[in-house]
What does this fold into?
Amino acid sequence: MKNTGMTAADKWLIGVLLLLSITGIGLSIVLFPSQGNTAAEIRVDNKLIKTITLRKGYSEEIRIGGQTEYAIIEVQDGRVRIRQDDSPRQIGVQTGWVSKPPQQVVNLPYRIVINVVSNEASDVDDITR
It folds into this structure.
């Protein structure tokens, strides 16, 4: 009866092929990212105020409100946040940067909602913190 076990050369060949395939997958993710457009929808009182495309190298500041009851929204390098507001608990400010759908920033006192949306299908059903 013959021994049909794997030789050292077989193991090396399998290892090299696995390493090459993992490297190829990693390079394709890094070099060819998804082409979906990600945008931030800014709503006040459920009315769309502005839609901003989130992309690297782009920055903008938007002030919503007056001298009192205001919020400053900052867009920078493909992400968005409420940088400053004069609400008592600062929940929208504490949320920080968001950049991936379906993340959002909410400022309840001034009814500001910033939704990150994309035209690309998402496999995430819900986010819980």
About this structure: The chain has a mean pLDDT of 88.
